[in-house]
Amino acid sequence: MVELNAQAQLRWRVGRAIGQVARRWRARLDARIAAFGLTESRWLVLLHLARSGDGLTQKDLAARLGIEAPSLVRTLDWLEREGFVERRGVAHDRRSKTVHLTEKAAPLLRRIEEVATGVRAEILAGIPEADLATCLGVLERAALNLAATSETVGGAGAAAGPPRDGGAGRGHRAA
């Protein structure tokens, strides 16, 4: 067994806690939103469109979600069949399509937001706002470090930085 000094032990515990909280938070949210007939990939697309502004290109949406375009296409196909989104061609680029929420998506998004708000309230109950602000600052700095080191190692984690979309980026999947 490897002996860790106090600093290494603390950093290991922080990393483990972040992973555990993220998995359990997402699982709780998924379990509650599953009642609406949505998988995580589907509700994440809807939330990103709602929070980031309607009319993102499929390429931009895939990048914000941190997924490959073919995976997004399958999700968009389902959401479009169900009437929650529509894709429109881009006048200046015939290869690109923008994704737009439909009126049918609005009540579903309100329900998703209500559930997400409730889950956040449960998970963060009893934690002072000042502690949450400090935690957010630390996590955002860690995300910046990830993005900076990923760019030097091969670019794989550039999407891991703080989102440019007000918190709806990949690093904030837990809604």
- The N- to C-terminal Cα distance equals 38 Å
Largest sheet: 3 strands, antiparallel
Number of domains: 1
**Outline:** globular
Please write the string of helix (H) and strand (E) elements.
HHEHHEEHH
For this structure, what is the CATH class?
Mainly Alpha
Percent strand equals: 5-15%
Count of extended strands: 3
Question: Quick one: CATH superfamily?
Answer: Winged helix-like DNA-binding domain superfamily/Winged helix DNA-binding domain
Mean pLDDT: 86
Uncertain spans, ≥5 residues at pLDDT below 50? 155-172
Helix coverage percent of residues? Answer: 55-70%
Strand order of the largest sheet: 1-3-2
Structural class designation:
mainly alpha
> Number of helical segments?
6
CATH topology grouping: Arc Repressor Mutant, subunit A
Q: Give the radius of gyration.
A: 18 Å
